Amino acid sequence: MSSPRKARLEAAIVDAIEHPKKRNSLTRCMKRGRDSRSERLATLHGGAAFRQEVKAIKTRCIEQLPELQSRFIAAAEARGCQVYLAADGAEVAEICLRIAQERAFTQVSKSKSLTTEEIELNDDLQAAGLTVIETDLGELIIQLVGDKPFHLVFPSVHKMRDEVAEIFSKETGKPVPPDVDAIMKVVREYLRPIFLNTDIGMTGANIGIAETGGIVIETNEGNGRLVSSIGKCHICVMGMEKIVDTLDDAMMMVLAHPVSASGQLPTTYVTWMGGRSPLGVDGVERESHIIILDNGRSRMREDPAMQEALRCIRCGACMNICPTYGVVGGHVFGHIYPGPIGIPWTSEVHGLETAGDFAELCISCGLCKEICPAEIDMPLMIAEVKQRDAEEHGYPATNRMLMAAESMAKLGCTTAPLANWSLRQPWMREIMDRFLGIDKRRSFPAFDGQTLNRRFRKRARKLRGAAPNAGSARKVVFFADLFVQYNRGDLGMRAIEALEAAGCEVVLPKLQGCGYPYIGYGNLNAARDAALYNLARIAPYVEQGYAVVTPEPTAAYCLKIAWPKLLPYHPHAKQVAEASHEIFEYLLAQGFEGGANALGKRYGFHCSCHQRPLGAGAGVQAWLKARGAQVEFLESGTCCGMAGTFGMKAGALGYDLANAVGEPLFELFKGSGVEAVVTESSVCAIHLRDGTGLPVLHPLELL
Amino acid sequence: MQDALAREFATAFEAVRGVVHLVPTRATAAEAIVRILKEAGITSAAAAALPEGLQEALVAGCGAAGIALMQPPYLAADLPLSMDGPEAGITGMAFGVAESGTMAEVCDEDSVRLVSGLPRTHIGVVFASTLVPRLVDAAAPMRAIFQQYPKNVTVSFISGPSRTGDIELILTLGVHGPEYAHAVVITEEQA
Ligand code: SF4
Ligand code: SF4
After folding, report:
1. Whole-angstrom Cα Rg for chain A
2. pLDDT digits (tens, 9 = 90+) for A45-91
3. A8-32+304-394 placed in CATH 1.10.1060.10
4. What separation in angstroms does the CA of B24 have from each of B14, B97, B103, B124?
5. Distance from the alpha carbon of residue A42 to the mean position of ligand 1, in angstroms
6. Among A531, A483, A540, which residue's Cα sits nearest to residue A511?
7. Comparing C-alpha atoms, which of B79, B94, B177 is closest to residue A220?
C-alpha cells in the first residue's frame, strides 16, 4: 500500500474512533441484524441448512448462466418485455435515455437498486435533464444529501432523526419536527404525487427466473409495487448474475435474502412480475424493458479466484458481522458496495485500485464467510485482491515482515535471553514501533530457549528410542504451529504427554507454521508454498493411518478448510483435512480423562474466529466442564480484533482498530466476574490479556 | 391440517404487525370486513379480485353501513388518481403461506395492485384451504399461476403492513402503502 493511501485510511479510522455516536448506531444496526437472524434460524425449518441450498443453487445457475440467460430472454420476450444486454453503465444509460426521449418522458421514480447505484445511473439520467427520485426512504435520504450507502440494507443508518428531519424540511420548505412518525407523514405526502405522476418506474430485480421470464422485486416499504405498477413504462436494470433457473430456486432466494439480512421471512412485499400488465380493464398494453447488465460479471465468471462473488444475493449479512466495518462503516470500508463483499465486487466493477484503497481493512477473521447465505469465501477472495494489489504497489513493509513471523520467531528462539531482554526495553520498543511498525503498547510472550522439536528430540534420546505407545493403533502427527514451537515448548510437551496418556504414539516431523498470515496479508502464493511444504511431510503419515492434531485453532482451520481450498487439485489435501483435529476434541474422542481438577473454577471462554467453523471450541469446553469448571461462552458477536498479528501493528491500522473492535468484548469479560479467560488461540490471548487485565489461560496450562 | 395452518398463518401475520380475522364463510367474511371498516371510521373503500359471493355480500354490507365502495371494472383512464381517494383497499388472494403469514395476490391488470398498494388500510381475503405450509412450498402454486397466464401476470406476496426501519432502525409502518394490514381467513368454505 502506497503511503498516501495508508495515511487516508488511518485518518478515517481515527475519525471513526473519535465519533462514537455514528459508530454506535452502526453497531446497533449490525447487532440487531445478527440477533434477529439467529432468532429466526432457531425456529426456521432446517435452521441454517438453507445456506448449502443457496450455495448449490447459485453455483449451478452461475455455471449455466449463458443458457439460463437465453432462456430468460426468450421467456420474457414471450411475455411482451423488451430485453437488452448492456456491457456497462454507459450502455444502460443510453438505453434508458433513448426510451425516455422517444416518449418524451421526464419523471423517473425508482425503487432501491444497488445495480443502478453500481453504475451511478442517476447521474447520467439527471445530466440529460430527467428528474430522478429514489422512493425507498433510506435511498431518498442519501440521495437528498448526495451521500453513498453506509450499509447495504440500511443505507442511511448513519443519519439520526434530527438530521433526517432537517433534510426533509429543507426539501419541502416546511418545518419538520425531529420525530420519526412526523417525518414518515411528511415523506408519505412528499412521495405520493411523485408516485402518481411517474412516467418511468425504474426498479432493480432481486431475481430473474429463466423458467417464467419473470423478475422478482423485494421491498418492505411497498415502493417497488407502486413504482412498477403506476409508471407509464417500467424499466428494470438487473445484474446478469441474478438469473436463476426455476421458481423453486427463486423461492429459496426469497427466503434466504431477508432471513440473512434481518431475520425476516420474507420481505413484506415480494412482487413477481411476468411481463407488464395494463393499468386497468381496457387492456391497453404497457411497456416493460429489462436491461441485463454485465459490467465485469462475465469476466468474473471466468476468473476462478473471483467467480464465487457472483453468488452474492446482496443480503448484507456479511457487513453485520465484519469487525472492522463495524468501526469505520461503509464510507471508509467500501466504495459503492460496502463491507466484506464490497472488496471483491469493487475490485471487479470499480477497479483494483479502488478496492486496494480499503482492502487492508479486512483482517481476515473469516466471520463473513460463516454468515453468508451463499457461503462465499470472502476472506480468500479478499486475499486475492490484496495479492493483485501488491503486484502493483508491493506489500506494506510491516505486513511483509509479519508474514515472515516464523523466521523472526526462530531467531527469537535461538537468541532467547537477548531477544527477551530487548523486547522488555522501552527504547527497543520505540525503535520497533517507529521503524518496524510494531506497536510499542502491545505485549509479547517471551521466546523459549529451545524449540518444541528440540525438546521432543531430547526426550527421545533420554528414552533411548523407546517412544511411548510405539506400535499403538492410535498414531498422531503433532502439528505445533508457532506458539508452542517457539514460545511455549513446555505446553507443547504437555499436549504431547496428554496424547500419549490417551494411548497415542506421537511423532513430530519438521514442519513450518500454518502460514495463515500469508492469507491474511494477501500473499496466496506463499500460503500455498507453506501448505505444500507441510502437506508433503504430513501426508505420508496420514496415508499410514495417523491423525493430525494441533493446539492452535488457526492451524486447524488451515489443515481442515483453507489448504484444501487453496490447493483444490492436491492429491492429499482433502485426506489430511479429514484426518485433522483440534487437540481437545481429539483427546475427548479418545476418552482422555486427565488434567487438573478445576472444580469450583469459573472461566470465560473465548472462541477465536477461525475456531467457529470447527465447532466453536466445543471440545475444550466439554473437557473443562468434565474437570468440574464452570465455563461461560462470552462473545460480542464478532471478532476480538487481534486477527493474528494485525493487532500488533502500530497505530490506527493495527493496535487502535484492534482495540476499538475488542472493546465490547473486553467489557463483557471484565463485567462477568470470571477468574480467568480461557482461549486456545495464542494471539487472541495476548489481546485479551492486554485488553481486560484478566489472567488468560491456554487450556494446555490446565493439563 | 388446514386448521393448524390457519393458526400458524395467524401467528405469523400478527408477528409482522398484521391483524387476522378467522371467519367460516364468505358471508361472515363480508361482515368482518364491514366491521373492520366501521371500527376504523372508514367511509370509502375499493375492492378488487374478490371471490364470487363475497363481492355481492360486501356491496350489501357496505351499503347498509354507509360506506362508499368502489368496485371493478376500473378504467385505466381514471387510474392511478381514482385510487388515491379510498381509505381502504380490499383484495382477494389466490393462496397463502402459513409459515410466513404471506398472502399471494394475482392480477393481470394493475388496478388490483393499486387497490392493495395505495390506501392506508389493506384487507386481504384468503381461504384457509389454499394455505401451503412453508414458503418453499409456494413454488408449486406459483408455477400453476404462471402457466395459467402465459402473457402478463403479477403476483404480489403481502406479509403485513408497509414497513421501514430506515430512521434509526425504528420500526415504522405505512411509509408509502398500507399502515394497517388485515387478513380475513375463510376457514370452512372452500376457495
Ligand atoms: S474476513 Fe473478517 S475482517 Fe475480513 S471482511 Fe470478512 S468479516 Fe471483515
Ligand atoms: S456476500 Fe454473502 S453475506 Fe454478503 S451480501 Fe452477499 S450474500 Fe449476503
Report:
1. 28
2. 999 999 999 999 999 999 999 999 999 999 999 999 999 999 999 99
3. yes
4. 19, 19, 18, 15
5. 24
6. A531
7. B177
Band of residue A424 on the pLDDT scale cut at 50, 70, 90: confident
Q: Confirm if B184 and B32 have CB atoms less than 8 A apart.
A: yes
Exposed/middle/buried for B52, CB within 10 Å: 0-12, 13-18, 19+? Answer: exposed
Tell me the residue type at A18. Answer: E
Amino acid type, B189: E
A224-259 residue pLDDT tens: 999 999 999 999 999 999 999 999 999 999 999 999
Mark yes or no for CB contact B136/A157 under 8 Å: no
Interface test with B, best of A221, A245, A262, A285 (most B CBs within 10 A): A221
Nearest to A674 by CA among A693, A699, A701: A693
CATH topology of domain B2-186: Rossmann fold (3.40.50)
Q: Where are the domains of chain A?
A: 8-32+304-394, 44-293, 405-589, 602-702
Q: What are phi and psi of A395, to 5 degrees?
A: -85, 145
Interface touch B113/A229, C-beta < 8 Å: yes
A134-148: burial string, b at 16+ Cβ within 10 Å, e else = bbbbbbbbbbbeeee
Residue nearest to atom 4 of ligand 1 (CA): A362
- The bridge status of strand A269-274 relative to strand B153-158 is antiparallel
| Dist. CA B117–CA A394, nearest whole Å | 55
What are the backbone angles phi and psi of residue A317, rounded to the nearest 5°?
A: -60, -35
Question: In whole angstroms, how far apart are CA A471 and each of A391, A493, A506, A527, B82?
Answer: 50, 20, 10, 34, 88
pTM of this structure? 0.92
DSSP per position, B65-128: HT-EEE-S---GGGTTGGGGS-SEEEEE-SEEETTTTEEEEEESSTHHHHHHHSSSEEEEEEEG
At A95-153, the pLDDT tens digits run 999 999 999 999 999 999 999 999 999 999 999 999 999 999 999 999 999 988 888 88
Minimum-distance CB partner of A274 among B136, B146, B178: B146
CA–CA separation, A134 and A695 (whole Å): 53
The amino acid that residue B9 corresponds to is F
The correct CATH number of A602-702 out of 3.40.50, 2.30.29, 1.10.540, 1.10.3470 is 3.40.50
CATH number for the segment(s) A44-293: 3.40.50.10420
User: CA-to-CA distance for A136 and A141, rounded, in angstroms?
Assistant: 9
Q: Dihedral of the CA atoms B161, B18, A38, A381 (nearest 10)? A: -20
* CB nearest A270 (choices: B108, B157, B161): B157
Name the pairing type of β-strands B131-132 and B95-97. parallel
ipTM: 0.98
For A220, nearest residue in chain B (alpha carbons): B163
Tell me the pLDDT band of A2, cut-offs 50, 70 and 90: very low
> At A121, is the secondary structure helix, strand, or coil?
helix
In terms of CA atoms, which chain B residue is nearest residue A284?
B76
Take residue B135 and report the three cell numbers written for it: 414458503
Long-range CB contacts for residues B23-27, cutoff 8 Å, separation at least 24: B23/B184, B23/B185, B23/B186, B23/B187, B24/B186, B24/B187, B24/B188, B24/B189, B25/B186, B25/B188, B25/B189, B26/B51, B26/B53, B26/B54, B26/B57, B26/B186, B26/B189, B27/B53, B27/B57
The C-alpha cell that represents A112 in the structure block: 432501491
Q: Which three cell numbers stand for residue B188?
A: 370452512
CA of A346 to the centre of ligand 2 (A): 14
Q: CA B84 to CA A192: how far, in whole Å?
A: 9
Integer Rg of chain B from CA:
16
Residue for grid cell 366501521: B38
Rounded to the nearest angstrom, the minimum Cα separation between A170 and chain B is 17
> End-to-end distance of chain B based on CA atoms, in angstroms?
16
Same fold across A8-32+304-394 and A602-702: no
